[in-house]
Structure prediction request, 185 residues.
Amino acid sequence: MLEYKEYLAEILIDEKTLQKRVAELGAQISHDYEGQDLLLICILRGGMIFLVDLMRQITVPHQIDFMAIASYGSGARQSEGDVRLTLDLQTNIYSKNVLLVEDIIDSGHTLSYVLEFLTTRQPKSLRVCTLLDKKERREVDVPIHYCGFVIPNKFVFGYGLDLDEYYRNLPFIGIVDTNKYRPQA
Ligand code: IMP
Ligand code: MG
Prediction:
């Protein structure tokens, strides 16, 4: 894999802007869940960096857990609606306040599947916090309670989001130069 700069068209959201917004979301969540217990669920792997930064901005006591799902297709086209669970939670979410932490909502199929699945386990409450929302790509309607940024229909990477599993470590969200890199169809 080459240097990330080879694939970067432009920086969409810089580090400072990201951190500021994550702090705002953390403050809002802390306010909304004041006096209540909270479980943050991160969907691997894209939401990992966001979770780690966000939880450090949340002042109410909370637990974390992880789940993973696979979608057929990859990259920008993880949106064909065929989704399955590959890693289940360790935590029993029955009667808990659950906040799902996601990197990006695109078609909405992934989230829709996860919400349906979690609902069957009867949490006390179930909300969604996503860093990014590609609103114009939505195919199924999904409720989003906390959103970092609505972004245009461009393939992005960095801050947890990958290009062929690389570059998740970048501190900013970058737009892919599609002349140099084609997201898998
Ligand atoms: P959805 O089911 O179409 O909403 O797909 C959401 C998933 O697609 C995300 O969790 C990401 O894994 C992936 N995805 C969608 N757009 C992008 C992108 O621009 N960069 C990286 N991954 C993306
Ligand atoms: Mg994801």
Summary: The longest helix spans residues 15-32. Strands lie at 8-13, 38-44, 62-71, 83-87, 97-105, 125-133, 146-150, 156-157, 173-176.
